[in-house]
Design brief:
There is one protein chain. This protein is α+β, with helices and mostly antiparallel strands. It has a single domain, classed as Histidine kinase-like ATPase, C-terminal domain (Heat Shock Protein 90, 2-Layer Sandwich). The protein is built from four helices and five strands, in the order H-E-H-E-E-H-H-E-E. A hairpin with a 2-residue loop joins strand 2 and strand 3. The longest helix has 18 residues.
């Protein structure tokens, strides 16, 4: 599937209802050849679960009444890199290594949010890994979080 087209479609479907919630969702294709498809092997339904989990966390952990999530697509060696940068409350550097563990929630998350099981990012990691990709997180300073997903270019059979 074309990753760029998938992300454009996802954002166009989600953005209108998010605007009503004072939340901005955007997609930026920073590849030098944006007229070419970014072909990857993914199960679209499962990948939408990844997108929904990341978006859900960005909404849940936003700081204040407004927020944003910017999705950026870039080329990387052997594939594509997706960056999901939000403007939320962020995660302490010490919590980053465990962020994708099942049932793990940071102290800040436990005190500020009543719902959630701590499984969303663990599920996202499982799906991305099954697609031969990687998923990591970095803190945005002064606040926010960036989830980084790399996916390999689909090889023709």
């Amino acid at each position: 599937m074309d990753l760029a087209a998938c992300l454009r479609g996802y954002v166009s479907l989600q953005a209108p209802s998010l605007t009503e919630q004072q939340f901005t969702l955007s997609f930026h294709d920073e590849r030098p050849t944006t007229d070419q498809p970014a072909t990857v092997r993914l199960d679209r339904l499962q990948f939408n679960r990844v997108l929904d989990n990341i978006l859900g966390n960005s909404l849940k952990y936003r700081s204040g009444a407004t927020g944003s999530l910017a999705i950026t697509l870039r080329d990387c060696t052997g594939g594509y890199e997706l960056r999901f940068a939000d403007t939320g409350c962020g995660v302490a550097d010490a919590d980053l290594p465990r962020l994708f563990d099942s049932f793990y929630r940071t102290d800040k998350a436990r005190t500020g949010v009543a719902s959630g099981s701590g499984l969303g990012l663990a599920i996202a990691k499982h799906i991305v890994t099954a697609c031969h990709g990687t998923i990591t997180a970095t803190a945005n300073h002064p606040h926010g979080l960036t989830i980084i997903i790399t996916l390999p270019i689909a090889q023709r059979k």
